[in-house]
Design goal:
By secondary structure, the protein is mainly alpha-helical. Helix content is 64%, strand content 0%.
């Protein structure tokens, strides 16, 4: 989501600022994940952020969990790990409890 200032700057530079919904972004990130599962932890991070924007914290926690435990990280994605770790710690209480 763009802040008020970002929208004003974008409106000045463009005819109108780019628009999209969290639902649209989520669909694109899910499509990417479906095409190449567990390849980009940053994609999983943004899926979780979309769910947070939509107040679906349990789903967000599931995606933070996937990103947190994703062992397929290249050097670029290691930079994302701090944000993933912090978000995972914040939202892990929403994780679905597995039947034992």
């Amino acid at each position: 989501m763009l802040s008020w200032l970002e929208r004003k700057v974008a409106a000045t530079l463009f005819a109108s600022p780019p628009t999209s919904t969290a639902e649209e972004a989520l669909q694109n990130f899910i499509t990417s994940e479906t095409l190449k599962p567990n390849s980009w932890s940053v994609n999983q991070l943004y899926i979780a952020k979309c769910y947070i924007q939509m107040s679906q914290f349990e789903e967000a926690a599931d995606w933070f969990d996937k990103a947190y435990h994703n062992s397929h990280l290249d050097e670029e994605e290691q930079e994302v790990q701090k944000e993933i770790r912090d978000s995972y710690e914040k939202y892990k209480s929403y994780l679905k409890r597995k039947a034992e």
